[in-house]
Amino acid sequence: MSFQLRLFNITLLIFLLLSLWQCTRNTAEGPYPQKTRNGSSSSLDINVLGEGTEIRRAGLQLMESPLGFVELKDGVHHNDSVLVIAVHGYESMGYEWVTGLKNLATHYGSLFFYRYDWERCPDQVAASLAAQTIKIFRSGSYKKLVLFGHSYGGVVVTYAASDLANLDAEIHVIAAPLNGFPGLMDQCESLQYDADDKLVYPKWNRSIKVIQHRTVHAQDGAFRELAIDPQDIDLPFYLVQELPPTMDGHRLGHNWSVSWVLDQYVGKPHRY
User: Fold this and answer.
1) Which of 49, 68, 72, 215 is in Cβ range 3.0-4.6 Å of 58 for a Cys bridge?
2) Could you give phi then psi for residue 79, rounded to 5 degrees?
3) 191 with 221: CB under 8 angstroms?
4) Which CATH number fits domain 42-265: 3.40.50.1820, 3.30.300.350, 3.10.310.30, 3.90.1150.10?
5) CA of 67: how far to CAs of 21, 64, 178, 244, 269, in Å?
């Protein structure tokens, strides 16, 4: 083989190897969720999630994450003493979380989005969520846990409250049908109801502060057709916040209640 042909073959091989390396690098650093080193959760660079006209695509991207915990990173070190977890609702399209999560990420360095199968009963999802949350909490140097649960996810985190032992926890229940929802949980034989046909929840420890954020019944697109507000339930809440009917001049309905609560939490409130 001539020297020129050998040189050509070596050059071609180097080119192919470099091309393969670049493709692998792009895949690993792409905008889609990647497995973390310990395999217990996936991670996502929250800066790749667009807002405005891109918010619905960003929501779908968020909901395409694997089931389980998705760690949301922004590449900047923030407060790591607080573990923050967001839990979506039934058939969520994700967009309702994007802006609020990005604002949370500017304040907290340990932010997770919990993906689950919404065909499972809420008490079953809650047991898995609580067990995994305690494992993460005890693996770090966390001092406080903050949970945000929206809609069906609000039911989930309310069930999870009793399983969080003696953690210093704050649970925000947003626009959640806590007393039950017609047809949604009928197959869940493990759930208990009281004499008024409202869901019964296990008692939680006094260290757990459960805060309910209630939308206006007539303004909530998921609840307004129901004769009785499914948010109306007597539980030992630390606080009950009645949300306004409008946000930034528009109707504050079922989904945008997430933005209201999350932004209010980090000190970026909206106007009515």
Assistant:
1) 49
2) -60, 115
3) no
4) 3.40.50.1820
5) 29, 9, 24, 33, 31
pTM for this entry: 0.85
* Whether the Cβ atoms of residue 270 and residue 258 lie closer than 8 Å to each other: no
Q: Please give the chain's pLDDT, 272 residues, in tens.
A: 554 545 445 454 544 444 444 443 333 333 434 444 333 568 999 999 999 989 999 999 999 999 999 999 987 777 789 999 999 999 999 999 999 999 999 999 999 999 999 999 999 999 999 999 999 999 988 999 999 999 999 999 999 999 998 899 999 999 999 999 999 999 999 999 999 999 999 999 999 999 999 999 999 999 999 999 999 999 999 999 999 999 999 999 999 999 999 999 999 989 99
- In contact, 59 and 94? CB cutoff 8 Å: yes
